[in-house]
Amino acid sequence: MIKDKKRVGFFILIALALFFLSWLIYFLWHRYHYAVTDAVFVQADNLIYVSFPKVNGKLIKLYKNEGDLVKKGEILAEIESTDYALKVAQLEKALKEVENQQSALGFNIAKLEREIPLKSRSTYKTKG
User: How far is CA 77 from CA 60, 63, 73, in A?
Assistant: First the structure.
């Protein structure tokens, strides 16, 4: 009876040793074939790289962080607008100057149109 218990215990010990050995072989094989890191992998439908190629300026506020979900039309960041405000003011001033020039040219055209008939009348008088 004691021999039978020893024999069963021996087989259980052998089975556990084989299980542990097979697990160790699989573990080493997996470590050898695959890089195992603590890095996190993100699954996404598609990745979009965001940049602001058409505007330059200092980033004032960032509304979304890397990895946040973003919906179409959401504001991602705010860029300092002082440079653009100055540029708008300069362009408005230039527009006003052009409008003034246009107005002055309109007055010149009206003046010349009034003078042309007078000169043509004086030409008829000298001929006739």
Answer: 8, 5, 12
